[in-house]
Amino acid sequence: MSPAVPRRSFLSMAALAGVTIVSSVALSGCTTFPRAFRSASAGCAPRRASEVVPDTGSLFGVNLDWGHQTLEEYATLLGHRPAVAVVFADVPLGAQDVEDVRGAADQVRGQGGTLLLTLEPQDGLQSVTDHVADDVAALVNEMQESGVPVIVRFAHEMNGSWYPWGQQPDAYVAAFRRVARALRSGAPGSATMWAPNEGGGYPFIGGPSSAVAGTPAFDVLDTDGDGVLTTRDDPYTPYYPGDDVVDWVGLSIYHWGAAAPWGANVLPEEGKFAAKLTGTYNGAGGDETPVPDFYDLFGVRRNKPVAVPETAALVVPRGDPEGERAIKQAWWSQVFSAETASRFPNVRMVNWFEWDKYETEVQEHVDWTVLHDPATRAAFVGGLPGWLHFAAAPQPCRTAEPGR
User: Does the N-terminal peptide bond of residue 203 adopt cis geometry, omega within 30 degrees of 0?
Assistant: First the structure.
């Protein structure tokens, strides 16, 4: 079984120096965010998220540890402005969520990139009402009108059993479509992203949200009709909300090691990244070839831009810096290889998970980062290929017409 990917929580960005945090308001019901609460650069002509999809190559982005590093600091270390920055927020939106998201948008605006807003319904899918979806659209529209393109990734890794919204296909599809409709209406120009976890280890038995036999959700997920959930059941299609409401498709792909029990520092097998993306992996972690080809099924056949919204390689620091660096380098060399660019031209976004954090799956601290250690940073930056796109310097936006 593939390990669960834990929630990506972060500290309040109000503590970050140099970041303007606007006042927040408590949200209830269908809230319209007042113009008075917008950042100083409000009033820009909205930038459409669809315009950020490159014709060729891929956007480079980062899952940033906002509580310990600003986007500008990260860009300075990288030597490039990330084209995408990922921020997480609970939904229904609370005052702190709004403050954090606005703070992230301020930083993204200053770097000229796109915000990938990941929404986590921690209280369950039933909490995502029409009013809640309208709140999301209002906040997204606010950020877009302040000059920040926004892609919304709703309830990611919904095929896993580790989140409160996991393995509930019908309820998930309904909630995704509800949010998408609100965005289409209230935040025109924004984009949506549907992003399960890669299917190795599916159905991820044992998590708190595992589908239970005899329930309607279980019956939907039993795609081969044999009465049990196994690796032969489709880990993606039952959760797909529909071409009309999905702009991007994404897949979380991590190198967690070789096999359970997780936590050992192991070099990734050759070709592992491509095999995970295409459902052809058969190695130390087991035979995962029943998993469908995600890239072909959702990127090629549906003609959708494909994202890898989260990726990194597991390293538990154990006093072997060269060996630990080799693991990370072996993984990023696969992710950013010439083969990735040529074989998977629909991959239009790759976001590195730049965190150093305790992971409950291995009960140890995992250093997923590539910029913290100077030698690793030098190797990573030096290995970035020319087919990656970074953010251009931010440009002053056109002032909106009076009364807008």
Answer: yes
DSSP string across 215-270: SHHHHHH-TT-SSS--TTS-SSGGG---TTT-SEEE-B--B--SSSSP----PPPT
DSSP string for 289-308: TTS--HIIIIIITTT--EEE
Hey, is 65 helix, strand or coil? Answer: coil
Please give the chain's pLDDT, 404 residues, in tens.
333 343 333 323 333 333 332 323 333 333 333 333 344 444 566 678 888 999 999 999 999 999 999 999 999 999 999 999 999 999 999 999 999 999 999 999 999 999 999 999 999 999 999 999 999 999 999 999 999 999 999 999 999 999 999 999 999 999 999 999 999 999 999 999 999 999 999 999 999 999 999 999 999 999 999 999 999 999 999 999 999 999 999 999 999 999 888 899 999 999 999 999 999 999 999 999 999 999 999 999 999 999 999 999 999 999 999 999 999 999 999 999 999 999 999 999 999 999 999 999 899 999 999 999 999 999 999 999 999 999 998 877 654 444 44
3-state helix, strand, coil in the chain (%, to 5): 30, 15, 50
Q: What is the pTM of this model?
A: 0.90
Enumerate residues 6+ apart whose C-beta is below 8 A from 374. Answer: none
CA atoms within 13 A on the CB side of 55: 0
DSSP 363-399: TEEEE--SSSSHHHHHHHHHH--TTEE-PPPP-PPPB
Give the integer Cα–Cα distance in Å for 279 and 289.
6
